[in-house]
Amino acid sequence: MREILIDTAAADLFQPVWSSRILDEWRRAAIRQGLEAGAEIALLQSRFPQALAEPGGRMFGLDLPDPADLHVVETALAAGAKVIVTANLRDFPRGTLGAVGLRAIHPDEYLRDLYLRAPEPVSAAVEATEVRARAAGGQMGRKELMRRARLPRLAKAMARLDGAGDAAPLSQDSPIVPPRGQN
Fold first, then answer.
1. Helix, strand, coil in percent for the chain, rounding step 5
2. Of 2-6, 58-62, 98-102, the least confident
3. pTM for this structure?
């Protein structure tokens, strides 16, 4: 999932945003799973140097289910983002985020929406992920890859619209905060 998101960002479909703390959380989550994220984080920082945003201060009075996630909202606001892309929607309630001009969206829904507006670069991102998976020894088809990436909406949209003409022009939304700890 993360690779597809990053490749769509590289295609200028959106501007990714993260903070040092978000990257540190990703690193710790990877370690808990027995993985190493340091090299991938360094590559992302090199590829998207403009993505780093640091919150200016603490927001008080914002009631999130997990107060430890407040820094994600602060980072999004510091960057001028309108959307937080996360699979953890429970911790970013619609009403709470709406009060500060943000909304949370699941990566599957976000990628599906990008695909419906700009199918070629999203398809290219999925294909590039398939190529990397095969090169790493992952002999699976697109359906299995999309299932493992937890992207069923995107998979259905691609199956329905694959090769079905032109897409609507892509609007230039504000930057987003990419999902944390997602592959």
1. 55, 5, 40
2. 58-62
3. 0.83
